[in-house]
Amino acid sequence: MDPFVKTRKERWKEYGFEYARDHEKDPDNWEYREVARLLNPQKDEKILDIGCNTGEFCFFLKKRFTTNPRGIDINREAIKVARIKYPEIPFDVKDISHFEKEEEYDGIVMIEVIEHLSDLPEVLAKVKRLLKPHGRIVLSTPNQWAFLFKLKSRILGRDFTYDPLHLREFTPLSLTALLNSEGLKVSKVYTKVLGLPFLRRVSVHLYTHFPSLYFGRWIFCIAHREE
């Protein structure tokens, strides 16, 4: 069966231990540093990581910035791994749209999560309620305008955006419009990385800082709760 015509129920059957391990990252990878740079976490701030997978970003926040992170994910296997690896951090198997108790957070992060969601207005309304006044949300997501990466993927016989659980793609403009429409004021949006051939082998710093305008592989965005 073509993976793009699977039902939603069939897709989520694939969201288990192997998926969690495939998406596990080094806690000090450049993408986490980019998200943290936007978030600008302060000591003792409460940060919610939605779609935390196996907990690496929460660990990064606690170790590097001494914040109070909390991670949630609907993948039970990922949360089992996170709890074993980082027992000092609270992790829960939870869907953001079904929070039983309202809490307030200084910051919320969604790293490569929003492209998986079908009920975006409901989720973003919940996110807005969970943020403290002037609280901020930082997101990253694959970029629909990443033409260079898509061309390279086609040449190499790969599918740039393939993931059986991705439901949509965003551009910097469409993501900004979505967040603004839900009362989350976008203050900065940009893309990284451009993905020039062999640039990463020359210098990781150049690879992650070479100008990409709106055509980099991932979109990074920060928005604040409007009063």
Describe what is shown at a glance.
It contains 10 helices and 7 strands. The protein is of the alpha/beta class.
Report Rg: 17 Å
Percentage of residues assigned to helices = 25-40%
Which structural class best describes the helix and strand composition?
A: alpha/beta
Overall pLDDT level? 86
| Main sheet makeup | 7 strands, mixed
Keywords:
Rossmann fold; globular; 227 residues; seven-stranded mixed sheet; alpha/beta
Molecular structure report:
The chain has 10 helices and 7 strands. It has a 7-stranded mixed sheet, sandwiched between helices. Residues 1-6 have low confidence and may be disordered. It has one domain (3-225): 3-Layer(aba) Sandwich (Rossmann fold), CATH 3.40.50.150. It is globular, with a radius of gyration of 17 Å. With 227 residues, it is of the alpha/beta class.
Topology:
Elements (H helix, E strand, L loop, with lengths): L7 H6 L3 H6 L7 H10 L6 E5 L5 H10 L2 E6 L2 H10 L5 E3 L11 E7 L8 H11 E12 L4 H9 L16 H10 L2 E9 L6 H4 L1 H6 L8 E8 L2
Parallel strand pairs: 1-2, 1-4, 2-3, 4-5
Antiparallel strand pairs: 5-7, 6-7
